[in-house]
Amino acid sequence: MSAKFEADARVRVNCTVNGKRHTGYAEPRTQLCDFLRHELHLYGTHVGCEHGVCGACTITLDGRLARSCMTYAVQAEGAEIGTVEGLSEPGTLNPLQRAFSDHGALQCGFCTAGILISTTYFLADNPMPSEQEVREMLSGHLCRCTGYEGMVRAILSVAGGGS
Amino acid sequence: MKPASFAYIRPETQDEALSALAEHGDDALVLAGGLSLGAMLNMRLAFAETIIDINRIPALNRIERVDESLRTGAMVRQADALKSADVSEAAPLLRLGLQNVGHYQTRSRGTLGGSVAHADPSAEIPLCLATLDGVVELASQRGSRRVPAREFADTALSTIREPDEMVEALHWPIHTGAGVAFQEIAQRHGDFAIVAVAAVIRNETEFSLGFGGVEGVPRVLDGMVGGSVEETVGAFVDELDAMDDPRASAEYRIGVARHLGVQTLRQAQELAT
Amino acid sequence: MDGPGEPWVGQAVPRLEDAALLSGNARFIDDLAPVPGIRHVALLRSPYAHARISKVDITEAAALDGVYGVLTGAELVTELDPLASAVRAPVDYFPIASDKVRYVGEPVALVAAVDRYVAEDALERIVVDYEPLPAAVDPVAALEDSAGQVHERVGSNLVHHRTFRYGDPDRAFDEAAAIVSLDWRYPRQASTPIETYGAVAHYEEAPERYTIWSNFQGPFILQPLMARALRVPGNRLRLVAAPHSGGSFGIKQGLYPYLVLLAAASRMLGCPLKWIEDRSEHLMASSAASDRADSIEAAFDQEGTLTGLRYRNLVSVGAYIRAPEPASVYRMHAASNGCYRTRNIAVDNRLVLTNKTPIGLNRGYGGPQFFFGLERAMDKAARSLGVDPAELRRRNFIPANAFPYDAPAGALYDSGDYAKGLDLALELADYEALKARRDAARAAGKLFGIGFACGVEPSGSNMAYVTLAQTPEERAKTGGRSGGAAVATVALDPSGAATVTLDSTPAGQGHATAAAQIVADGLGMRPEEVQVVTTMDTQNGDWSLASGNYANRFSAIVVDAIVESTDRIAMKLKAVAADMLEVAPDDVELSGGRARIAGVPDDGIALARVAAATHWHPAGLPEGLSPGLREAATLSPDVLDAPDEQDRVASAVTFGYICDLAAVEVDPKTGRITVETYVSVHDVGRVLNPILVEGQVRGGFAHGFGAAVMEDLVYDSEGNFLSGSFADYACPTAADLPPVTVGHVETASPANALGSKGMGDGSSMLTPAVMANAVADALGRDDVELPLTLDRVWRLAREAS
Ligand code: FES
Ligand code: FES
């Protein structure tokens, strides 16, 4: 059966974020990034453009990468979502996060959440990427601080088994 | 940058989708991967009373061989098509084109059907489909019909799809030879192409050479292998009515279309032999 | 490190900021709801470059469910005074338009609603009647009588014109053996951080107070300006920095008019207001570096000595002069000689009003435009004089033994060894081999070119340099201006734990880490034990007019304030510990979290005990010591004096050095530039932390490369804005940037206790010139302008062949 919601409906949305069940309310037009941030209070996902270019808002949605600014919260009903908050246990950093710090892969950190999500997904897909492949993957994100060099090195260091 | 209000319908079968389209089609937009439509809704450049979300219709995700074609459901994700052995074997040109579509991240959710339905002049997928002389399969409660890809888009961002219809699948004429090539030029990696060129050689004798990003819709030159590539391509490109915008002038588009056209066709010919 | 050993300063200490940022726990302005009852703001913006507003009808918008209030520009402006600037001209600048709109994107009305979605719905229901007027778009055309008048009361669009002479430029040109000249257009560009502007403004009635949380980055010289616009004393306007800021590169300075707007609206609507700028708003109407029509002439003698320079700058400031503008035009002024010895300089600055977004701070701040002229001229001169461009520069460098160097227009260059930096660049690039490659490529019919640029990086600004926009007589009337103060506060609590509070409002540069390193060295601790507070609060913290995150101020001046306040705490700790240990204070050293007797293999006493004594037992302190441990050091470098009557000013405290070299191949068929080699050598003085320095160097290059090759805020001839999305305004991605070889030379700065120099602009100032020089060399033509897009380069290459 089709799900149907009126334009101004307040829709209850149930989803799993980083393995935890969450419920919140959204209108059909509510962007998923707004829902995650302002309804579920998961502020780790950032918003830099709301038109799909900067990649700051990138999350995983049912096993795919998604721009949460161009996905609507109602589309996430019953979905499994992954955000930066789920990458490591509280108080710890995973090897990729540590590599980002070691290699100067972040400055303001505003772009970082989306890049970590993309990279995690990418490395599962392609565990031994070339530098060119890493750069091409990263081209789906904009960072204005770093010049990307540290990110490339961080990702290659983890992909190569870590240094 | 928030979208205007819209009602939302999420059908779970193709029939439900078609009935929603029959009821709301005039004021509805179909939401596939959302990589183009989402941006336009957010920027309030597109409006709809109703959004019909076809992301949960399993039947639209299939890739299968039907007759002489590879049939890809409208919701086949670009990333999945890129990894599909069927696509590599039966539509190698599509594979080449897909490597240039957007970014790793956007291909994960972006779809083949969505790109064709959106009809961006620079988009690689409709360019490949037109070059291969493929077919767009449209469905509505009135029945389904097949439209040659070269006739599907009428101007930039506009197609002959009727309001109650949806793109159900794309048909890629099976082409197994090595004679395919794809080249494009964009200011940045992953940008929409300023000019994209796709070439396919059939039976070592015929070729099709498609140009994207030059006019509002893909333009395809069909010909016989053997003449002067420069002359054939040059004559065709000179007749194109190129777009002029802040990204590139019409002159540039024509100049580069000629250059890439020659290169791409040559490359396909070399690979075909 | 337990005992005194290698200092933390200089080491690659991992950034203290990173853990929160990497785990999604860092909080930015849009994450905050500092007060309850917040309403959300959207702004109606002008679709016209220039038009009279004849009517604004808000009835339907105000009636929409979920809308809390709608305010028109006319209503808001009556509650405000204009925002002043250093240019004396009848140009009233308000944060919102009332009678006339002057650029696409200028705010016209404000909606507050239950959320941003509804607020945007309401915008569509506001009806504005505009009578379009002819627009002034191009800076040269804007000077013609027939051009649209941006501010009628000025009488023309020329709003400022000053000329300057240092030495005897006319004689230099009369006697020159060769004169090289260039003129060019420079495009509008912006630094576009990934986080846009954002603020929460809250008005309280009794006692009256405005509080604004935001990602505003200073300079806080703008705080009194804002208070004046709101018609309240400064102590009624409290500005609080968000815990983290998602990049700025200067541009978040341009947020302040919006803060005034939101504050006034909060009072008028009676509720706290939140506004998060969206990307289209940011590109269209936040701020930009100026588009310019500039020219330069350079005079040389027989030996290739640069004997004189003449600059003529025509700067499109946009529709208003938004303070601290016209600072971008004067930032490089005192260093108009660049890296060179010439003493004869003439400068002609004209500012022209145009129907575009007002200009403001952006990375490089006047540097990219300045060096584009000077360094393009040097490369062109080298070709026409038949001297190698590296050699020509070497001949003209200020020699290493001439520092500190008093530059003709007043800058006091602290230290440098320019030739050494150039040598290193040549070595890293393998210049001889590169030239051979160029010969081979050219012989094979390819377009291969090499370009250079060298530059100084003024850091730690003198607040007074902007008053060069006034004549000496005008300056005398306004009263003196000088200095660039920094404040840092170091405190130890009773447990001996240290907290340092900064006034530098960082936006990703890692100030917290560097500050912790400095404090850790001074107090014998580990950096991660130091708590660093960067959420500057004008009510509850120490600050000065010069506070903020601009002009590479941190490692030029702020570090000195940290050192000073740390030293004072250390002295007090030593005095108290000496008393406890029964030795002289000079015999006490602080290390490993303890106060020890120097040279005695003993554990000494824990800092916690010493600190506790100052807090718990003031009566027991040695005579003359006050209770507690808290020291705020405020200092302003002596060198930053007021401009003199000859318009000379020491504009900055430290002058870093950058020498960049690029080799490119141009594909004439597509206009594609392939960077074969890029070398970038920096002198940042003493390196505080290589991770931070590397980050600034690479990031500055990325900005410079984007500016050189793709970034452009495009307006059509009617003033319509065509770059309103990140698809249109192209910033480079990881796949677009070429590899860069980075080198360092180090001349410690005598200007502060650590020897460090400011270094945040870096190659953002030079890469545009270097890339243009390389492309000019490849194509054999000098009319090369930016950005070097595919289309432009293709066109140039075609005409060249
Ligand atoms: S915020 Fe979603 S891609 Fe930029
Ligand atoms: S770290 Fe600031 S945008 Fe990437």
Shape of chain B: globular
Residues in helix, % of chain C: 25-40%
Strand order, sheet with most strands of chain B: 4-5-10-6-7
Structural class of chain C: alpha+beta
SSE order of chain B in H/E notation? EHEHEEEHHHHHHEEHEEEEEEEHH
**Biggest sheet character of chain B:** 5 strands, antiparallel
CA-atom Rg of chain C in angstroms: 27 Å
CATH T-level fold name of the largest domain in chain B: Uridine Diphospho-n-acetylenolpyruvylglucosamine Reductase, domain 3
- Quaternary organisation of the protein chains: heterotrimer
**Biggest interface between chains:** A-C, 56 and 53 residues
**Low confidence ranges of chain C:** none
What are the SSEs and their pairings?
The complex is a heterotrimer of chains A (163), B (273) and C (801).
Chain A: E1 3-5, E2 11-17, E3 20-26, H1 32-39, E4 58-61, E5 64-67, E6 80-82, H2 95-102, H3 112-125, H4 131-138, H5 149-159
Parallel strand pairs in A: 2-6
Antiparallel strand pairs in A: 2-3, 4-5, 4-6
Helix pairs in contact in A: 2-5
Chain B: E1 7-10, H1 14-24, E2 28-31, H2 37-42, E3 50-53, E4 63-66, E5 69-73, H3 78-83, H4 85-90, H5 92-98, H6 104-109, H7 112-118, H8 124-131, E6 135-140, E7 143-148, H9 149-152, E8 153-155, E9 158-159, E10 166-173, E11 180-185, E12 195-202, E13 206-212, E14 219-224, H10 229-238, H11 250-272
Parallel strand pairs in B: 1-3, 2-3
Antiparallel strand pairs in B: 4-5, 5-10, 6-7, 6-10, 8-9, 11-12, 12-13, 13-14
Chain C: H1 18-22, E1 39-45, E2 51-57, H2 59-63, E3 67-72, H3 73-77, E4 100-101, E5 107-113, H4 116-123, E6 127-132, E7 158-166, H5 169-174, E8 178-186, E9 198-204, E10 209-214, H6 222-229, E11 237-241, H7 256-269, E12 273-276, H8 279-285, E13 291-300, E14 306-318, H9 327-330, E15 345-353, H10 367-385, H11 389-396, E16 405-406, E17 412-413, H12 418-429, H13 431-443, E18 447-461, H14 472-478, E19 486-492, E20 498-502, H15 511-523, E21 531-533, H16 553-581, E22 588-591, E23 594-597, E24 605-606, H17 607-616, E25 630-635, E26 652-667, E27 672-683, H18 690-709, E28 741-744, H19 767-779, H20 790-800
Parallel strand pairs in C: 1-12, 10-11, 14-15, 20-21, 27-28
Antiparallel strand pairs in C: 1-5, 2-4, 2-6, 3-5, 7-15, 8-13, 9-10, 9-12, 13-14, 16-17, 18-26, 19-20, 19-25, 22-23, 23-24, 26-27
